[in-house]
Amino acid sequence: MCTLSIPVSIFTFSIAINCCCHSNRVDYAFSLLATTFKRGFVPDVVTYTTLIRGLLSQHKSQEARLFFANLIKFREIQPDVITFTTMIDGLCKTGHTDMAFWLFRYMEKSDCEPNTITYNTIINSLCKRGLVDDAFNLHSEMMEKCILPDVWTYNIIIQVLCNFNRWEEVSLLLKQMIDDMKISPDVHTFTILVDAYSKSGKLDDAKYIIQIMNERGVYPNIVTYSTLIHAYCSQGQMDGALAVLNTIKSKKIMPNCYTYNILIDAYCREQKLDIAMDLYRKMASDGLSPTVVTHNILLHGLCQLGKSMEALTFFFKIQGLGHKPDIVTYETLLGGLCKNHYVDKALSLFRTFECNGLIPESNTYNIIIRGCLRSKKYDGACKLVDKMIDCGFSSDAATTSVLRHLLLSKAQDPTLVALYQKCLH
Question: pTM (2 decimals)?
Answer without folding.
Answer: 0.80
